[in-house]
């Protein structure tokens, strides 16, 4: 009866061939740039994001400097070629500013800012290709970049999207196609190890009855993502470590 | 677990855009064959049950069938036969079917979902081994065929000891498949070698275009898709929905969005094989070539080519009226066919050949040529037929027989036809639905009592038509002590207590949307246990209700309004007549009588106030058909009687609906389900204004108020039925009232034109209307008695629901009328009566006559076929005159009524003029011929009728 | 000279052979991971860790280091954390009263007190108001200096000094920034390489490549800068080659010290200077250097 397209077919596969609880393929790489202190590149399906972290460094703007904590400065931008319709400008529009703020809030939750008085950490994320779950990919990329920069954080911070397929089945990691065809999308940013939710965002109004199951699914997704990121981090660290011969390591 | 494959898609949205999508290939897709050990089979669908095997005489082994897209699209009727089983559908095919035709896709889904049919959907495009990448420049069809062959090859390798057979009508694909060592056949070859072939073969769709060149091409060719799109883009062509005229088979209209008036298309070349409902491309002529719609009635009788041409000639000559000129054009191509299945019968011929002509019951649908080997049988049956194609050389479209409904003329068959034609779901309630019902005996528990207001002591009574078993409203009224105010309560059956959102019962009810009333039959929206028992507010039974309680002063001003869920116990269930008697009987002074009198006096005030605001009083020819309870034959046809109590109940229902509408809109400004009645465009009133002018009345259509006033004035004492006729005509000018979701429209559009109220909804008949259930749920949330659920607050969902409700309601209304019409015909079979009637419309070659006694509307042709008419038609004044007699609209006439059963499907009334006498045209009155034997016998019957009454409750407006 | 343009896709780059890695395997901790469960009073929380519900958890990705009771997790990559006595290369970012601020790749800008520099005219000269006014003439924003960490303040700010003839303002040359962890801690950070290039390996990851230093001059505390002097082309080429070698080693996470750079220089001679920027060449140089270093190591240990 519903005019909306069925997002999960009879066999339980989604339009792109995934099952409801499967993430898209995640590929990530840390230390992609040499200039910033930390950098990372992540692909979640076709969504591709670069992140770079500078700092902590001396706050250049004296007024902003805090004597008991460092400030986190984030900038979200989308490459003009990242969407099917060419964007007019990469940053500065309302959506970008909003996402910058959301990212800043998410990162403030994990970075141990009190260790760095009078300092500043700059986080730049750039979406190279948008195919759904942009914010989630940005958070994940920023996490990797921050870890790469050696900035202390409480734990991984991961973000994941979830939605309802056929108004019934919760599904994970929504692609752009599913975002358009399906109902409201829930984006959560969470600390997967302590299962704390940092940030939640809905794209549309959503009935409360559906929320718990979608939320659970999204949290599950965050945990899955954390596992993947963790592996990448360990891989990266041991690569540097072994190349330098664990130099300067005392043990 | 998965690998990715992204591919590039070009999409045209104004300009070219590149789309990249992921495409995951998996290793965990099961082949579906139960014996297969390589795949971990899921329990979703197992292909074979031991009882099922395919037997086809071409092969001596059991096998699995694999279908090409074209087979499913063209031969879905064959596939619906249970003899075809063990079929593997590839996802490539499945998606293509969905893309090409949604109705067939839905039917395919029903087959797949039926486990006994053993259809299995194999997701070949996400399977690691069966995925084929697209090569550059490949046509999509070739690609799909390649996918199918690749998947079959995989199957053959995967299960070497099973046989797989590809059915395809695409020659190229078949040859390629055979080259790949895949056994491939056409459907025809396959089906002809099946058992029981003679029956199933009829259902094969006929796409074989046989030797077209020999025959004369009757129709101009259609433009192809690209030309059409180009034309539409450039503005030289217009896209629209084709609507065939119901009276003239050579005429129709195309409703085009960007042209205000519908575009007229005429003649066979103009219509160019469009069938009612198709989306077509139309070319509009330049203004000089525009003509007016012919006001003649032409039927597609069985005539040869020449006569058709003659008819076209007649048509041409009758379309030169200057004043009535409409945009005219011709159909140059079909954008989308909307062919459905059609009910009808075979044309009666002595020819028992392979090819037969099928006559659809719906007059807007052309006759269809079908091929059958069971003519003898089919001739006696009502059939369902679908159209396959309409080649240029063929006068009629080609189709094939789908199924037989039953004997022609039997009431059961006719009822089924009515239901089928109007898309009314009438199957039995499924087990799952019945499982949702409460168990009997049903008792009111303490927890129920806690949450409900106890109104059991109140003197509540219900007033309904006789024989009504689904009582959904009851009333009470009592003076409040020490004040001069009254407490008035409307109690509506609490159906939403039993029908919980999301259950099978709820879904079924939502899909049915309304109870359909046919003559002698009721198609319930909810199972009988609810409709006639637990929900019905029966006399002296404790029932759950949703109450709306007002306090009013004696001038019927509402002081307070309260809504609550309650428990009531109706003291008395009355008919309108009984209630009327109680009110009128001065000796009765019990509580019920008192409260009825209060209600009645309040209702009168309410009604007056409503009318003052501009509410319209409309008339329609609703009739009751008295049925013999045993033979189920109609005994008499009568126009419904109205009592004061009818309008008493009606007033309070309106009041309740309005109060509820206000409440739910306040609470849910975005998603309240309301009902609106749009103001009809002024052009709709043309016939009314015209008719009024001829009789010297000025009908002011500026607003509903002025209209109501001018209707009141349009009365002549010499012509008692005149006012009624005006009102009847007015009701035909109206648009349909519709349900809508409040968030989707501007506030000004919420207006209910007919009732002249700014807000209206349906609350009072939840047993027979689904909209009321939704309103109940909204109201329950609003007054804290229930909680919301997602779909209730979802604007899009509600809108979709509203569309379904509106569609079903409209169809239910049509079905009801069709049923009445059929039974009226049945009643008149073999009778010959003279009846009084009135001219409703004057047409160019006929008069539309209304016979109020039976609510019948028939056509009186002014000339016999082939003869020239002796009447003079005055287009300007809308009159026909001959022999010194002039017919205007609303003129009284006497006509002889006879049922012409020569055409068994379209039995129609033949009218002959009795009065006024026109020499050479009218016939003498029956009474003069024989001394009224017939009328006497009729009267005798009337006295019996009470016993066999079977009344129908009709929508209260 | 026709220019060749080298294009390679991301996937091709991955085909470059991985470098032989050292066998030692370290346990890597990642943020949020428990380092020690229920770390009562037996341990002292060090850098890169935090306490959560009595457990000691890592807050960075790195390896565990334990000094008696002090447990810390050290991230391999991070900003420079200075220690007293380390040699730095830095850039003046601000001139303030009595001090300069120096950007040294550490978290906060380092300080160079006016009192910690050798001013012309004797080491023990009193600092006068005039000197304060003259500060910008000694060092101004953008100047590169070499210095040594004198002390570390509580907030992590480094205090520098240049009270040695080795330190001071740097002249013509190339600055290369690499990860601080790649600089091997040695006794000597000033090198005069055999092929006519001088090198300062700052512990903060800033490496300065200059023309050879003539020890006989420049005793003035290094506040002069001769930008007029033309460095011969051979020297410039050698400097560029050293720079590219350092980049090659850094890109492949090889430690930087005099031997490794000399080896890399020698191995790189088969390439033109500009060819050294190709990823293949960089890997090649790094691998060959690594092999020679391990041969040397084996030789020494025998």
Could you name the key traits of this structure?
heterotrimer, A: 251 residues, alpha+beta, Ribosomal Protein S5, domain 2, 9 strands, globular, B: 957 residues, OB fold (Dihydrolipoamide Acetyltransferase, E2P), 4 domains, five-stranded mixed beta barrel, 38 strands
Layout of helices and strands:
The complex is a heterotrimer of chains A (251), B (957) and C (302).
Chain A: E1 26-30, E2 38-44, E3 47-58, E4 71-78, H1 94-108, E5 119-129, H2 134-148, E6 158-165, E7 169-172, H3 176-181, E8 185-191, E9 196-202, H4 211-243
Parallel strand pairs in A: 4-5
Antiparallel strand pairs in A: 1-2, 2-3, 3-5, 6-7, 6-8, 8-9
Chain B: E1 2-4, E2 7-13, E3 15-21, E4 24-26, E5 64-67, H1 69-74, H2 76-79, E6 87-90, H3 91-100, H4 102-113, E7 119-122, H5 140-158, E8 164-167, H6 171-179, E9 184-185, H7 187-192, H8 197-202, H9 225-234, E10 237-244, E11 251-256, E12 263-266, H10 267-271, E13 279-284, H11 305-317, E14 328-336, E15 341-346, E16 355-360, E17 368-371, H12 375-379, E18 381-389, E19 398-407, H13 411-421, H14 431-435, H15 446-451, E20 453-464, E21 473-479, E22 485-493, H16 495-498, H17 504-512, E23 516-518, E24 521-523, H18 528-534, E25 542-553, E26 558-575, H19 576-584, H20 591-612, E27 623-627, E28 634-639, H21 644-667, E29 673-676, H22 686-694, H23 704-713, H24 722-733, E30 738-741, H25 770-782, H26 795-828, E31 832-842, E32 846-851, E33 856-861, E34 872-874, E35 879-882, E36 885-887, E37 892-900, E38 908-915, H27 926-929, H28 933-944
Parallel strand pairs in B: 5-6, 5-8, 6-7, 8-9, 12-14, 20-26
Antiparallel strand pairs in B: 1-4, 2-3, 10-11, 10-13, 11-12, 13-14, 15-16, 15-18, 16-17, 18-19, 21-22, 22-25, 23-24, 25-26, 27-28, 29-30, 31-32, 31-37, 32-33, 34-35, 35-36, 37-38
Helix pairs in contact in B: 3-4, 13-26, 20-21, 21-25
Chain C: H1 10-13, E1 28-29, E2 34-36, E3 44-45, E4 49-52, E5 55-58, E6 62-67, E7 70-75, E8 87-96, E9 99-103, E10 110-113, H2 129-138, E11 144-152, E12 158-161, E13 168-169, E14 174-177, E15 190-193, E16 197-201, E17 206-210, H3 233-251, H4 258-267, H5 279-301
């Amino acid at each position: 009866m519903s005019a909306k397209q069925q997002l999960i077919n009879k066999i339980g596969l989604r339009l792109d061939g995934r099952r409801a609880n499967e993430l898209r393929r995640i590929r990530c790489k840390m230390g992609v740039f040499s200039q910033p202190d930390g950098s990372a590149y992540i692909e979640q399906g076709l969504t591709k994001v670069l992140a770079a972290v500078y700092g902590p460094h001396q706050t250049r703007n004296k007024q902003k400097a805090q004597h008991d904590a460092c400030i986190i400065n984030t900038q979200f931008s989308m490459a003009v070629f990242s969407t099917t319709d060419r964007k007019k400008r990469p940053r500065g529009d309302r959506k970008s500013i909003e996402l910058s703020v959301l990212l800043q809030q998410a990162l403030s939750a994990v970075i141990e800012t009190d260790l760095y008085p009078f300092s500043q950490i700059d986080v730049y994320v750039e979406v190279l290709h948008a195919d759904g779950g942009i914010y989630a990919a940005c958070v994940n990329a920023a996490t990797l970049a921050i870890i790469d920069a050696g900035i202390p954080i409480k734990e991984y911070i991961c973000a994941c999207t979830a939605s309802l397929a056929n108004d019934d089945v919760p599904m994970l990691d929504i692609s752009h196609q599913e975002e358009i065809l399906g109902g409201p999308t829930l984006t959560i940013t969470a600390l997967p190890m302590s299962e704390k939710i940092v940030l939640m965002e809905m794209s549309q109004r959503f009935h409360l009855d559906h929320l718990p199951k979608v939320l659970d699914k999204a949290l599950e997704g965050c945990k899955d993502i954390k596992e993947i990121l963790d592996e990448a981090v360990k891989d990266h660290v041991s690569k540097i470590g072994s190349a330098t011969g664990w130099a300067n390591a005392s043990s | 677990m998965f690998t990715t494959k992204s591919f590039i898609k070009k999409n045209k949205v104004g300009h070219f855009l590149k789309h990249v999508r992921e495409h995951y290939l998996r290793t965990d897709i099961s082949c579906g064959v139960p014996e297969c050990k390589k795949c971990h089979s899921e329990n979703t669908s197992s292909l074979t049950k031991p009882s099922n095997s395919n037997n086809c005489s071409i092969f001596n082994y059991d096998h699995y069938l694999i279908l090409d897209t074209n087979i499913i699209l063209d031969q879905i009727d064959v596939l619906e036969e249970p003899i075809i089983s063990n079929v593997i559908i590839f996802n490539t095919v499945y998606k293509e079917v969905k893309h090409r035709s949604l109705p067939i896709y839905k039917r395919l889904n029903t087959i797949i979902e039926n486990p006994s049919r053993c259809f299995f959907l194999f997701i070949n495009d996400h399977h690691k081994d069966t995925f084929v990448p697209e090569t550059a420049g490949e046509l999509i069809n070739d690609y799909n065929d390649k996918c199918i062959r690749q998947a079959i090859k995989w199957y053959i390798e995967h299960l070497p000891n099973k046989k797989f057979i590809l059915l395809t009508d695409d020659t190229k694909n078949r040859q390629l498949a055979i080259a790949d060592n895949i056994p491939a056949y056409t459907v025809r070859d396959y089906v002809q070698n099946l058992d029981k072939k003679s029956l199933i073969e009829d259902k094969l769709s006929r796409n074989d275009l046989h030797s077209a060149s020999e025959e004369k091409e009757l129709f101009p060719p259609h433009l192809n898709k690209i030309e059409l799109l180009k034309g539409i883009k450039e503005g030289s062509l217009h896209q629209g929905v084709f609507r065939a005229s119901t009276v003239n088979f050579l005429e129709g209209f195309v409703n085009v969005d960007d042209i205000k008036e519908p575009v007229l298309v005429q003649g066979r070349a103009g219509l160019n094989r469009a069938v009612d409902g198709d989306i077509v491309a139309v070319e509009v002529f330049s203004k000089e070539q525009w003509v007016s719609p012919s006001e003649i009635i032409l039927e597609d009788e069985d005539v040869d080519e020449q006569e058709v041409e003659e008819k076209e000639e007649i048509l041409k000559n009758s379309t030169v009226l200057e004043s009535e000129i409409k945009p005219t054009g011709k159909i140059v191509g079909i954008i989308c066919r909307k062919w459905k299945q059609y009910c009808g019968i075979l044309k009666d011929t002595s020819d028992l050949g392979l090819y037969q002509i099928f006559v659809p019951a719906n007059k807007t649908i052309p006759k269809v040529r079908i091929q059958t080997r069971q003519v003898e049988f089919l001739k006696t049956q009502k059939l369902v037929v679908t159209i396959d194609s309409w080649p240029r050389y063929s006068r009629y479209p080609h189709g094939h027989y789908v199924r037989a409904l039953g004997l022609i003329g039997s009431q059961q068959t006719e009822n089924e036809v009515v239901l089928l034609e109007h898309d009314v779901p009438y199957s039995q309630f499924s087990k799952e639905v019945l499982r949702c019902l409460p168990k009997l005996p049903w008792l009111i528990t303490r927890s129920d009592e806690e949450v409900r207001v106890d109104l059991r002591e109140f003197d509540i009574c219900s007033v309904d038509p006789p024989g009504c078993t689904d009582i959904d409203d009851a009333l009470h009224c009592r003076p409040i002590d020490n004040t001069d105010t009254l407490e008035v309560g409307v109690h509506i059956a609490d159906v939403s207590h039993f029908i919980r959102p999301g259950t099978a019962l709820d879904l079924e009810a939502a899909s049915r949307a309304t109870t359909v009333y046919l003559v002698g039959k009721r198609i319930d929206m909810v199972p009988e246990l609810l409709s006639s028992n637990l929900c019905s507010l029966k006399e002296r039974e404790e029932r759950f209700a949703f109450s709306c309680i007002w306090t009013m002063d004696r001038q019927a001003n509402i002081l307070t309004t309260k809504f609550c869920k309650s428990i009531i116990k109706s003291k008395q269930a009355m008919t309108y007549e009984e209630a009327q008697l109680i009110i009128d009987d001065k000796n009765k002074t019990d509580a019920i009588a008192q409260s009825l009198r209060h209600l009645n006096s309040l209702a009168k005030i309410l009604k007056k106030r409503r009318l003052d605001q501009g509410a319209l009083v409309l008339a329609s020819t609703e009739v009751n058909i008295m049925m013999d309870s045993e033979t189920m034959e109609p005994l008499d046809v009568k126009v419904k009687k109205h009592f004061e109590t009818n309008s008493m109940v009606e007033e309070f229902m309106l009041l309740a609906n309005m109060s509820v509408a206000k409440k739910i809109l306040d609470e849910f400004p975005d998603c309240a389900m309301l009902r609106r009645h749009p103001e009809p465009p002024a052009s709709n009133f043309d016939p009314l204004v015209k008719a009024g002018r001829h009789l010297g009345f000025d009908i002011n259509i500026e607003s509903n108020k002025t209209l109501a006033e001018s209707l009141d004035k349009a009365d002549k004492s010499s012509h008692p039925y005149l006012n009624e006729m005006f009102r009847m005509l007015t009701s035909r000018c109206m648009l349909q009232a519709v349900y809508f979701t409040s968030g989707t429209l501007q506030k000004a559009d919420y207006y209910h034109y007919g009732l002249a109220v700014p807000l209206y909804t349906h609350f009072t008949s939840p047993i027979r209307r689904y909209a009321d259930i939704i309103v109940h749920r909204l109201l329950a949330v609003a007054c804290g008695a229930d909680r919301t659920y997602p779909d209730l607050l979802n604007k899009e969902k509600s809108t979709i629901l509203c569309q379904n409700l509106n569609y079903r309601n409209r169809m239910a209304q049509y079905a009801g009328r069709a049923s009445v019409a059929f039974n009226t015909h049945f009643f008149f079979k073999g009778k010959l009566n003279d009846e009084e009637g009135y001219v409703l419309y004057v047409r160019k070659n006929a008069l539309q006559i209304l016979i109020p006694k039976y609510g019948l509307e028939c056509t009186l042709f002014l000339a016999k076929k082939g003869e020239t008419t002796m009447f003079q038609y005055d287009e300007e004044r809308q009159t026909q005159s001959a022999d010194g007699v002039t017919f205007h609209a609303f003129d009284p006439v006497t006509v002889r009524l006879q049922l012409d059963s020569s055409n068994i499907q379209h039995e129609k009334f033949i009218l002959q003029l009795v009065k006024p006498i026109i020499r050479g045209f009218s016939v003498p009155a029956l009474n003069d011929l024989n001394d009224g034997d017939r009328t006497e016998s009729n009267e005798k019957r009337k006295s019996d009728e009470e016993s066999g009454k079977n009344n129908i409750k009709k929508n209260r407006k | 000279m026709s220019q060749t343009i080298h294009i390679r896709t991301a996937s091709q780059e991955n085909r470059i052979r991985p470098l032989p890695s050292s066998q030692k395997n370290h346990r890597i901790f990642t943020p949020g991971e428990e380092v020690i469960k229920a770390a009562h009073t037996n341990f002292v929380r060090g850098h890169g860790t935090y306490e959560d519900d009595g457990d000691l958890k890592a807050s960075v990705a790195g390896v565990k280091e334990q000094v008696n009771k002090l447990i810390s997790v050290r991230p391999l990559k991070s900003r420079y954390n200075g220690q007293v006595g380390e040699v730095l290369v830095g850039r003046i970012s601000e001139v303030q009263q009595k001090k300069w601020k120096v950007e040294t790749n550490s978290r906060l800008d380092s300080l160079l007190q006016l009192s910690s520099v050798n001013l012309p005219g004797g080491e023990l000269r009193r600092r006068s108001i005039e000197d304060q006014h003259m500060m910008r003439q000694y060092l101004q924003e953008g100047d590169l200096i070499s210095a040594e960490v004198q002390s570390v303040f509580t907030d992590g700010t480094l205090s520098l000094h240049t009270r040695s003839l080795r330190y001071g303002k740097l002249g013509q040359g190339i600055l290369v920034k690499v990860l601080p962890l790649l600089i091997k801690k040695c006794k000597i950070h000033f090198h005069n390489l055999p092929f006519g290039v001088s090198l300062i390996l700052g512990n903060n990851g800033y490496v300065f490549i200059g023309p050879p230093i003539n020890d006989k001059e420049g005793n003035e505390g290094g506040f002069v800068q001769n930008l007029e002097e033309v460095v011969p082309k051979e020297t410039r080429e050698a400097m560029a080659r050293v720079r590219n070698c350092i980049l090659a080693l850094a890109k492949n996470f090889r430690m930087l010290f005099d031997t490794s750079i000399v080896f890399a220089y020698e191995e790189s001679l088969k390439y033109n200077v500009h060819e050294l920027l190709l990823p293949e060449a960089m890997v090649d140089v790094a691998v060959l250097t690594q092999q020679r270093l391990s041969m040397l190591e084996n030789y020494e240990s025998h």
